[in-house]
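re: ur question from the group chat, yeah i did fold both. here u go
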Amino acid sequence: MGKVCEISRAMKTWLLSLHVLLALPLAAQVKTVTLHPLLTDLVKRVGGDQVTVVDLIGKTGDPHHFEPSSDQLKQTKGAALYFVSGMGLESYLSSLKSIVAHEAKIIEVGATLPSIEGSCDHCEHNHGNEHKEHEVAEKNEDAHHHDIDPHWWHSIENFRRAVNVVAAELIRADPANKDLFEKNAAAYRAELEELDRWTRKEIAKIPKASRQLATAHDAFGYFCKDYGFTAFPVQGVNREQVPSTAELGELINDLKEHQVGAIFPEKESNPKILSTITKDTGIKLASPLIADGTTVDTYGEMVKHNVNAIVEALVAK
């Protein structure tokens, strides 16, 4: 009789343990790959514990020209979704599609977001914020469009919309966790709305006449459009575009004419050309901005860093 009771107690203990295990969250069900550091943060925020994220870029890569190695592609085996920035940012996207398209779905997060024109050369700066919105989906998705500014994440509103894009794709891949993804997405959108309010409050400290943003390359057009700045990019939409002597001279004249208060380098790169400009104009060199999100862990961290640096440099002392 004692042995029967002992077995009964053991059975109860096993059943209780099984019940506890069944009550625990399921293991990650969707394996995803991201090719932009800010998308890594976004997918993790929306997916939570139900998503595994393989970040191929990391904090040292260049989203414009990154090409995954064979070893990196091995890490992506079994992935159902690839989240890429789109808008022509990734020059290697066609090659990636030929490699993984038959195994996974590639989502260009920026494809359906409002876009603006970038500076194709240094003779036409974005004075007056006269940007024209486009639907990138109408463009050839495989082309690297230099006339479209691909840095859509510098618009907090665009990033908020991107949350919906990511949530919809995760729900399609794992409908059983629809409620979780929607809950996480709603919470993150609320955070982004608060981030936008904070940004506007901080920007209000800068006199309107001083809202001029001279940057290393043409990466902050969306920020300028949303918050009323005039953009003065030294380089084009990528870091390799270098102005000619004539273009540089025109840029220097523009900076002087508009009494630009500071020139902002970037953490990702620090072109020597900025030293020439500051020397020739006497304009101060401000703290570096973060253009591509490759030196931070979260989107909010990048936005707050940039806003604080801009306010510090441009607020009248």
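okk and heres the other one u asked abt
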Amino acid sequence: MGNINMDFVLRGQRLPREGETLVADGLHVFGGGKAANQAVAARRLGADVSIVGCLGTDDLGDRALALLDEAGVDTAFVVRTQRCHTGTALVFVDRSGRNSIVTALGANDDPEGTRGAVEGATKLLGSVDVVLMQLGLPVSTVDQGIRLCQEHGVPVYLDPTPIRRSLPELWCGVALIAPNETESQILLGGSRTDGPEEARTAAARLRDAGVGVAVVKLGAAGCVVAADGWTAHVPGVKVDVVDTTAAGDAFMAGLAVARGEGADWVEAARFANCAGALAATKLGAQPSLPYRPEVDALYRSGDAGVRHCAPTLGEREGGG
């Protein structure tokens, strides 16, 4: 459940400074939006996926829908509206893979359309293993989706971006929350999160707030996972970075797919790190999302390790 976009990507030697005009290498138009990216990524990793969201009735909406259909994602629960344009994003990427993004939410921020999409998808909730959600919809629609999932006993994995507010009580009931360092700082009311040590503290605080499992994403440094009485730092995988757009979305999809297949949280995080790293090696959002054989090969290579902290994995109860 979440936002669906079309991305306009400009790549250049570096990102522009304030007031500066640069000449880009070219313009690329890709499917994007965090929900759409996560849906396509999960499908490429082998999951059966339905997407719930809202598009405009414009040409960009037609194109976004066609890309999802082509990827094998069920789009039966996507609502089209004439009130708003399809969500778009302008993505600037430099030669080192760093990006700056400006987005116009459009139909993703239409309360009526998004509420209708979520209500229409209620029938899905009796047959799904997990719901991935982000904050690219109105907060009221996010809350509606979480409540419906809770009523139907469906776990929610919440990717709290674009971050809008500190951690509300309702969000504390999700099965998993996975902020990055900046987002965890906002969720926790300003506590500094910088590197694995601070991330362990932040993850533990999110757990104390009532979240089932907390994962703090650290970019190239991997992630920290906190569950029932233990935390672990799962280091990142070194790759040649082209564009980090959608790397976090590939991570979330990898985490959900691995857990759905029975992996414990640490092994799921290792798999997710591999998916996210591979997504950073190609330009664009959806074109960069890796297929299962690529992720399996990197995962089996042993490059994605784990660093334990008290208690160690051998001392965990329940195995994950």
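fwiw on the second one: The chain has nine helices and 13 strands. The chain has a mean pLDDT of 90. idk if thats what u expected
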